[in-house]
């Protein structure tokens, strides 16, 4: 594993980061599940920043940490490839468009419709359908490289089934941990069984062996050494090395980051539940606490934000909250950009100054993203140091298999969201329910998968194709 001395200059690394992440600005639709497929296709398959094993391990780590998993993966990919500054720049590129659009929406929220327009609903459904095809392709590709035997395949199937059937905040980290522990126990049992088997073997004397008299002569004549069949037929084992080597940094840096994160949590937690504190401080503290305790992703963070911002503090109305929620689902970038929208509206309660309201959105944005990204940066050095240890490798074998199971589950979860996106909506001016067009969305999924698998289309073009296909949907009003 290469260190920092072997990396290109900072300028070259910044250019590489920019050219890799700018194309994702307009294509990261569909939420965190779809983002995983987009990152896999662009960072692993095309840019070849890391190999499959490294990507799956980073995904496993991000799933076990609080905060937005897809953003943590994007950030960590840039971090292990090009270092801290490039990772920060990658995060900016990853989230800036959604942040800008959501803050703009917050300023004009009073002029926006109180219900989701039908065209926006259809656009969201078709873009999400395209994302289902993208993540399904990523799941198949990762599964083919990680699920190499019955044991790893069984872990993947069990984890996928559990993730499809149960929706609780602690489930994903628990499934990752269970996969790692089961794999470790399996390896220990296999090792113990192999030792017993070796002890039970009786040594064979060469005098007793039936060896032809001219055996050595034949070897000498051919000028070759005998090779055991078992040795000659073993496949080459793939290494964990990435195409260029990973950026490394001292563990004391990681320890410092972790200490700061924990201290901030100790400070902000009482502030987030206190009355009478300045609004800017309350905004940062509230969103920092939310970002520190969210393990379940989308639906869990929405429930917490609704409780904090609508029910407890009354910063936004329920209609404003639901409108912002509908908008974030149809925009590219991380869904946690929703925090910027809420931060702007929270500052509206104490000031009409536009810049002050923008600062409120920025504080909420920084607060909700900071804990997860900082924790990811603090974990990576320890992962880099110990990932090749036999025991750690055994654990990660199960963790990576569990991660693939979660990706397969994400395909089903995202598809259910597409199917239910129009539930309760009615055609404008009528009481008739909006048609589901489920069959058409299934076609979008299949076409998106085929474009990526057999035609090797870039993900951004697949997403655009999904949007164009959405224009074919006609609702009779």
TrEMBL record:
The chain crosses the membrane at residues 84-107, 170-189, 252-271, 283-309, 321-346, 358-383, 395-415. GO terms for cellular component: plasma membrane. The keyword Aminoacyl-tRNA synthetase does not apply. The keyword Chaperone does not apply. It comes from the Eukaryota. Keywords: Cell membrane, Membrane, Transmembrane, Transmembrane helix. It holds the Pfam family Chromate_transp. It is found in: Cell membrane. This is Chromate transporter. It comes from Bifiguratus adelaidae.
